[in-house]
Amino acid sequence: MATQDSFPRLDRKAFSVQQLYAESDEKAFWAQKSPLERLEALEQMRQILYGYDPATTRLQRVLTVAQREPG
User: Which residues neighbour 56 within 8 Å (Cβ) at sequence distance 6 or greater?
Assistant: First the structure.
């Protein structure tokens, strides 16, 4: 079972403040990454935002068992 400590943590102390119209280097940073690395980063952000826990997540039951009437 996964614990809360096994999830990636967000370091809220590390940030930078810039002007709204300042040139960003994010586009160049992500252009250097492979498509797989970009998808992995996207999945990590999704898990952080939604608190995804693969050990407790289950598929929703979509089928039900119906009893036939005799006859």
Answer: 1
Query: Do the beta carbons of residue 8 and residue 47 sit within 8 Å?
Result: yes
Q: Render pLDDT for 20-58 as a digit per residue (tens, 0 to 9).
A: 888 888 889 999 999 999 999 998 888 888 877 767 667
Composition of the chain by helix, strand, coil, percent to 5: 35, 0, 65
**Per-residue pLDDT at 32:** 95
Q: What are the sequence ranges of the domains in the chain?
A: 25-53
Cβ-based neighbours of 41, under 8 Å, separated by 6 or more: 33
